[in-house]
Design brief:
Strand order of the largest sheet: 1-2
Structural class: mainly alpha
Helix content: over 70%
Shape: globular
Order of helices and strands: HHHHHHHHHHHHEE
Strand content: under 5%
Distance between the termini: 34 Å
Number of strands: 2
Number of helices: 12
């Protein structure tokens, strides 16, 4: 039993280590999110709790916008669901990569804070997903996101808009860190990343598809590209059997 606890603690610490850069990027980006939160009338404490329980930039921005417009709760729920729909796909992917005996409580715990960046570092690890790695990453990342929102509300519109916009570039650097590392060791991943860039650009310019929200386009592209990767380049599990990527 002691060995299991030590192993879990080691994996948990690895998650904290990998989650610290994410937390720093979250702090900067969520700081800008605090401005619309302040416009919606939230206090720093309310913004902190909101971001702690709903770690999603697009979803929170949509919610704050609806709140500022004094719209009904049902509209807020629908907007948040649409903006965060891609996380359901990510949760399904991570759940399938967990060991079959993983309890439901751990699957739900991991799914609670499965953001784009945490998803990226999780799928980049070899072997089955260990929930305690995600718990470590969440422990580091969530306070950064929530704290940045609270401070953003405090700052309000004090900082010039061009400075706030420049600070948000840190998030793109974090995305690059997530995808470059596995792409350097697996050419198939590198090719798929390039295809994703091109497909995303094409979708943003194509008639009808470009009219869809960014979240909806992301869902469609994820399904299409993931299906293509699963067919063309299936991944072998530890028993030498193929399963879809």
């Amino acid at each position: 039993m002691a060995g299991v606890k030590n192993s879990r603690m080691a994996v948990f610490k690895e998650g904290i280590h990998d989650g610290i850069p994410i937390s720093l990027g979250y702090f900067v980006v969520s700081f800008t999110l605090g401005i619309p939160a302040a416009a919606a009338g939230l206090t720093p404490l309310e913004g902190f709790v909101t971001s702690l329980l709903n770690n999603a930039s697009a979803g929170e921005y949509a919610a704050f916008t609806v709140m500022a417009a004094d719209a009904p709760y049902i509209e807020m729920a629908i907007m948040t669901l649409v903006a965060n729909a891609r996380y359901m796909l990510m949760s399904c992917v991570i759940s399938q990569r967990m060991a079959p005996e993983t309890p439901l409580i751990h699957r739900m715990g991991v799914g609670f804070d499965l953001t784009d960046e945490i998803f990226g570092i999780t799928v980049a690890r070899p072997g089955p997903v260990d929930p305690f790695y995600n718990y470590g990453a969440m422990t580091a990342a969530m306070p950064g996101w929530a704290g940045g929102t609270a401070l953003g509300i405090l700052a309000g519109n004090v900082l010039p808009e061009n400075i706030v916009s420049a600070l948000s570039v840190a998030l793109f650097g974090m995305f690059l860190w997530v995808i470059v590392t596995p792409a350097r060791t697996d050419k198939a991943i590198g090719v798929l990343i390039c295809m994703s860039f091109l497909a995303s650009l094409a979708a943003s310019l194509a008639p009808y598809i470009s009219d869809l929200s960014g979240g909806t386009r992301t869902i469609l592209l994820t399904v299409v590209l993931a299906a293509a990767a699963a067919v063309l380049k299936p991944v072998e599990d530890d028993r030498g059997e193929d399963y879809g990527a």
